[in-house]
C-alpha cells in the first residue's frame, strides 16, 4: 500500500464514528496492513498475541489522536503503534517476574491439573499444539479426563432411554429412525455419508436430509442441552 | 475465468483461545470429535476477536458451541450477535479447496465465516464470508472461491432490516416479533374477516406443510398498526408459495384505503402491488419465490414507509 492509500484509509477511519460500516470496512483493510508494517515491535513471549491484540484495540479506539510526523506517514504510524505495543510487551515480562517471585518465595512446587509437579518456566511456556501434533495432544488430554460429556451424550444416544429417537422416522421407513441415523452420522468414526444411508434405505437423499435436519437434529440438540454440568 | 480470493484478515490466537479449545476437546468421546471441537473453538474465538476490533458485540455464553452437551453432539461453531442472529465460524484446513456445512448449521445463521489456521496454530486467517441466503444446495460443498470479502459481513450486519430467513420457519424457528397468527390478528377482525388465515389453514389438509406467522407493524405515531401475516408453503422444485395478508390492528378497524403494499425483488424492482378498497378489513397477495432470492415487502401510508426483507 502506498502513502496515498494509507492516508485515505486513515482519513476514512478518523472521519467516521465507531460502528459505522465505512469505518468498519476501512478497519478490515487496516487489520491486513498493520501486521505487515516493517519495524513493528515483536516478542517471542507466548502471550505476545495478547499484547498485539490489545494494541490493535487501542489503535482502533484512539486513531483520532494519531498525527503524521516526519519522515513519513508509514514510519510515524509504526512509531505511534510501537509506543503502546512495547509497553504491553513489557507488561508480559513483568507479569512473569511476579509469578516467578511468588513461586520462589512460597517455595512450593507448582502442580498442573494432573497433579504432576512442573517447573515454573515450563508452566510459563504452556505450549499449544501445532496442527500436526493435535491428535496426540487431544488423545493425552482425553486420557486425563476421567468422565467426559461426549461419552455421556453418546451413551444417551445408544440407550435412547425414553425411545424418543427410535420413535422418530419417516412414515414409510420405521428403521430409518433418528437413533440409527445419529449412531451412523454422529457417533460412528468416521461417520457414514447421508447419501450412502439414503441408498441403503432406498429413500431420496433430500427426504433423508430433511428428516435428519428438521426432526432428528432438534431432538439431539435437546438431548445435548440436558448435559449442562460437568459429569 | 479465474477468480481471486479475498485478502484474508489475520488474527493472532491468544493462549485463552487454546485453553478453551483444550478444555472442550478433552470432554469429547473421541480424538476426531475432540479435534473438530478444538478447531471450532479456535475459529469462534478468532472471529469474536475480529468483531471486537470492528466494534461489533458478540457473545459466547448463549452460543451452542459454548454449551458442553450441545457441542458434544453437534458440529457447531456459532457466535451470537445480540439482536441480529448467529454467525457460523467454519474452520477450513490449509489448501482445502472446498468445505461442507454440517446440516446443523444450515439455515438459521446470518452467514458463514471461513477460518483457516497456520501450521503451528498461532494465527487464524479469516478467509471470507458467505451470507446464508446464497446457500442454494445445503448438501453441496462450498468452493472457497465463492467466499466474499469480510466487507460482505459488514453489509449483512448493516442491512436496513434483518433479513427474515423463511427456511428457519420450516424448522419452527421464528425471529423475534413473528408470532402465531391468532396472536397477531385482533379477535374482532379475526371473527369478521372472511377466509380467516388460521381457520382456513386448519381446515385444509393440503396445507399441512405450510407454516404461518404474523407480525404487528405500527404505522408511525398514528396509533394504527397493520398485522402482516405470511404463510409459507413448499412448492415444486426450488419454489415456495407465499400468501401474504394484511389486517388492521392497533386503533384501526379497517385497512386505510391509502395503504399500499408492494412486493419487490432484491434489485428494488416492483413485482406486485395492491391497495385495499373502501371498508376492506384484509388484503391478500399470493406469489412464488425461488430459494435464495431475497425479496422485500414494502408498506407505505403517507410519509410512513416500512420495509421487511425476506429470503427462503
Average predicted local confidence, pLDDT of chain B: 86
Radius of gyration of chain A: 27 Å
What is the terminal-to-terminal distance of chain A? 53 Å
Number of helices of chain B: 8
| Mean pLDDT, all residues of chain A | 87
β-strand percent of chain B reads 25-35%
What would you call the structural class of chain B?
alpha+beta
Strand composition percent of chain A: under 5%
Q: In total, how many beta strands of chain A?
A: 2
The greatest interface between two protein chains, and residues involved on each side, is: A-B, 65 and 63 residues
Strands of chain B, total number: 16
Q: What order do the SSEs of chain A take from the amino end to the carboxyl end, as H and E?
A: HHHHEEHHHHHH
Low-confidence blocks of residues of chain A: 105-125
What general outline of chain A do the C-alpha atoms trace?
Answer: elongated
Could you describe the largest sheet of chain A, including whether it forms a barrel? 2 strands, antiparallel
Instruction: Quickly count the helices of chain A.
Output: 10
Q: What kind of oligomer do you see?
A: heterodimer
Provide a quick synopsis of the model.
Chain A is mainly α and 231 residues long.
Structure explained in plain terms:
The complex is a heterodimer of chains A (231) and B (312). Chain A is an all-alpha fold and 231 residues long. Chain A is 61% helix and 2% strand. Chain A has 10 helices and 2 strands. In chain A, strands 1-2 form a two-stranded antiparallel sheet. In chain A, helix 3 (48-62) crosses helix 4 (73-106). The longest helix of chain A has 34 residues, at 73-106. The radius of gyration of chain A is 27 Å and the shape is elongated. Mean pLDDT of chain A is 87; it is low at 105-125. The two termini of chain B are 29 Å apart. Chain B has helices at residues 15-26, 31-53, 68-73, 151-157, 166-170, 181-184, 187-192, 197-203, and strands at residues 9-12, 78-81, 85-92, 98-99, 111-117, 123-131, 142-143, 163-165, 211-218, 224-234, 239-250, 260-265, 270-274, 283-290, 295-301, 304-311. In chain B, helix 1 (15-26) runs antiparallel to helix 2 (31-53). In chain B, a hairpin with a 3-residue loop joins strand 2 and strand 3. Chain B is elongated and about 70 Å long. Chain B has 312 residues and is of the alpha+beta class. The model of chain B is unreliable at 198-206 (pLDDT under 50). Chains A and B meet through helix 2, helix 3, helix 6, helix 7 and helix 8 of A and strand 1, helix 1, helix 2, helix 3 and helix 4 of B.
